[in-house]
Structure formats: structure tokens, C-alpha cells
Design brief:
8 helices, 5-stranded parallel sheet, Rossmann fold, DNA-binding (chains A, B), DNA-binding, Arc Repressor Mutant, subunit A, alpha/beta, elongated, 4-stranded antiparallel sheet, homodimer
Chain lengths: 224, 224
DNA sequence: CGAAATCATGACGAATCAATGACAACCCTG
DNA sequence: CAGGGTTGTCATTGATTCGTCATGATTTCG
């Protein structure tokens, strides 16, 4: 649904949170310190940041203020502490919401949507398409693997988008030719070549693809 | 601080909440049913609405949906129930925040401020668009690099603003022609030329642009 | 098992695309 | 009306990308 940045020092909590959020369809990047989080957000802005308050070194409050200095990104605090004082301080520092651990992922997702509704009233909600470690951002014209941008050509990108739009469904070479290339006639081998090139770029092991799968005799499909 | 509407059927809670909020400097109106609340809000809109979920007759969820149908007012749910299901349902119905009773007034005030900050971006006229060392001030018609003003021409400035407004998104040459030049027809190479000139001015190394990047086959985009 | 069908992949020339410098037309402004 | 700055057009150049083909691998099925 969106690209998130989770800043949390406890590995177990961070990992389980990240996993759960990915299940909800978000693309999650992680940081275990405020410093790392700030750098990550500067280098590659997420659509929302989830931050713990108790962090080693620079703490959560400072982290929020620093984020707010340059960035208007929605910030949700996730803290074990439910003191009014902390809540008020975090919100005053610039956070948009504050939830107390343990938190249900469904609730978190709903709160993210609520904040986002306010934050981008007009911006078209083009969600990133997430396939595990693979992210596709149609509006940015960009593909990422493990959060790292991958250079794909225009045809590869269109092909990938077409497959992603119908994730899980088999598309025949004929269908792909019509939709990506806009020919009705043409060599179906052409699709193979581009699928091959795409695999070299987006699959960890192109010989045993996990996402861009061949359905022998039928065509190709993209899996999560 | 602001005009609030409290919709809550329990007299004791409503009154004590109203008193406490008035102590915080808010002007509070009260309603004990969803119907009364909706009428009150229609007749004389408050700046924010606090609503209980369990109301006699029309319940809180319905009340939120009805408010949202015509009004963009911030809505904070105040409920005794802390089920994830209720929280998600209330947020999905259009609420901006959800707090569980009993709630500290200081917290409530802070949450109101947090929501309001999002709801009236009008307070800040036009935020300077900051892309690392590059700043664009649309209202001042000026561009700065490392804080130093950079002379850009009118067309370059418009082009830059257009890209900045959709930061991170690819804009095709066609889109840029339409929005910056207001032609629908025209030579797309024109865009290239101006992008090139802009790069000479705003990029440290125009040959390896860090902000104004080319998306081959797609168009251009501006990165942070 | 072996043949046929299907798919993967590397190589290569052709086609496409973007960057840039040169230049003339067109502003303004003094 | 003269001159500096700005704008749009064009041609050239270099790089990337595309589509085709040939070859080798893999699967299917008789």
C-alpha cells in the first residue's frame, strides 16, 4: 500500500512489525537507530514513518523534531509508555499519532490510512505494488529490490507493470504483445527475450525465478 | 483554542469533559445524541468533533459517516472500547483519531492540535520545497543552491516547480509541455533543452544529476 | 528412451533516445 | 533602437535499447 520506514531498536519487535506490515501489503524499510532512520528517510523518503520513543543515542522525540525540520512525512509513534506526558510531548514534537505497544497491525494500518487521508487530500493514491522484496512504483517509473532501485528499461517496465496489475494470473504471450507492445501480430519469442532480461534484474536467482514464473505452454505470471 | 463539539450521551462524562476542555481554552458545545450533534454541526460548524461510539439511536459509526458526507471537520472518537475491530471500523468510517476512555485532557488537546496541523495546511502559506541542498520557493520565485540564490529564467522556474510539485514522480515530456508551456502539440525535444539548461544551474555535476534525473523512455523526475 | 515441442540465453546490427552546442527569432529594458 | 538575455529549432553525437536469430537447455509425450 505504501512505503514505510520503521525505526525501532528492539530487533524482535522491529522484525515482527515489519513482517506483519508487509503482509498488509506495505513496503517496509527498517532502521534500528534514529540516526540511521534519518539518513534512510533523507536518502529515500518513505510515505510514512513509524518510530519508537526509546532509542539508543538520539531518542525518539529528537528524531521526530529532526524529521519535521525538513520533511512533512506522516509520523506515528509506537511506544510502550502510555504516560500522558510522553504522548503530549511526542505529538507536540510533530508526531501525527501515538499508539501504545503492543499494537494490532490492523489498527496500525487503519491509523496510517487515516493520517494519509489528511496528508494527501489531492495526490492520487497510486500505491506501490509490493511483491515481497520486489517493489514496483508505477508513478515513479521505478523498480526496487530490497529497497534498492533497479534500472529497468521502458519495455521491461511496462511488461512488469502489466504482469503486476494481474498478479497471480497467467498472461499469454499474445496478451502481453497486445498490451505492452500494442501489436496484434509479431513474434511471440520477443516476450521471452524481455522476460529473460527482466529476470536478470529482478530475480535473485534468474534460473529459479520466485516472482516472474513461466507457465509452460500458457505464458507468464507474477507471484507475490 | 478552538470551537469543539462533544457528542456523548453520558451526562457526567460529557460535562466533565466539556469543563476540562474549557479549562484548556476551548469553546465547547455539547450534544447527547448523534442526531443533535449532526444538527448542531450543520447549523454552526465546530473546528473539531469529539464523538462517543455508543450512542442511543444512531450510533457513533453512523454519525461519523454522516458527518463525513458533507463535512471535512476533524473527528476524534472517544470510546470505552479498545477492540481493534472498533478502532479500525471507526477510522475507516472517517474518524481521524481514536482514544480510549478514560482520557487525559492534555492528551486530547495534543491530539486535537496534531490533527489540526494536518487539516489546515493553509496556516503555512507555501512550504519551501527542499531537495537537499536545493531549495525552491514558489511564492518568492526563487531557487537556492546551498543557500545561494541561483538565477533561473521563467520557463526554467516553471519547469522546476512543476517537477517539484510532483517530486519523485515521472512526468512525461508531453505532460510537461502541457503544464509548463500549455501546448498540446510541439516538439518534445524542447523539454530536453530546458532540462539541460536547468541542470547546468542547479546540479553540482550536470553530467551526473542527483535531483533532476532522466527516466529514459518515460520522461523526467525530481528527486530529494 | 528418444523425438518433438517449448523455453532460455547470448550475440549483434538496427533503431531509438537523450544530451549538447549552434543559431536565429523574440523579447524586454534602458 | 540597440543590446543582453531568453526562447524555440535543428543537427550531430554518443549511448542505450530493441528485435531477430541461432544455439543450447529443459520439459512433454509417444
Amino acid at each position: 500500500m505504501a512505503a514505510l520506514l520503521v525505526i525501532e531498536d528492539d530487533d524482535r519487535i522491529r522484525l515482527s512489525l515489519a513482517l506483519a506490515l508487509e503482509d498488509e501489503g506495505h513496503a517496509v524499510r527498517e532502521a534500528s537507530t534514529a540516526e540511521d532512520g534519518l539518513i534512510a528517510q533523507r536518502k529515500d523518503p518513505a510515505d510514512a514513518v513509524l518510530v519508537d520513543l526509546m532509542l539508543p543515542g538520539v531518542d525518539g522525540f529528537e528524531c521526530i523534531r529532526e524529521l519535521r525540520r525538513t520533511d512533512d512525512v506522516p509520523i506515528i509513534v509506537i511506544s510502550a509508555r502510555s504516560d500522558t506526558h510522553d504522548i503530549v510531548a511526542a505529538l507536540e514534537a510533530g508526531a501525527d499519532d501515538y499508539v501504545v505497544k503492543p499494537v494490532a497491525v490492523k489498527e496500525l494500518s487503519a491509523r496510517l490510512r487515516a493520517v494519509n487521508r489528511r496528508v494527501r487530500p489531492a495526490a492520487s493514491p497510486v500505491p506501490a505494488l509490493v511483491f515481497g522484496e520486489l517493489e514496483i512504483r508505477p508513478e515513479a517509473g521505478e523498480v526496487r529490490l530490497h529497497g534498492e532501485p533497479v534500472a529497468v528499461t521502458r519495455t521491461e517496465f511496462r511488461l512488469l507493470c502489466e504482469l503486476a496489475e494481474h498478479a497471480g494470473r497467467v498472461l499469454s504471450r499474445q496478451q502481453l504483445l497486445e498490451r505492452v507492445w500494442e501489436y496484434s501480430i509479431g513474434d511471440e519469442r520477443l516476450v521471452d527475450v524481455h522476460v529473460g532480461r527482466l529476470r536478470q534484474k529482478i530475480e535473485e536467482n534468474p534460473a529459479a525465478p520466485r516472482h516472474l514464473v513461466t507457465m509452460r505452454g500458457l505464458g507468464y505470471k507474477l507471484l507475490r
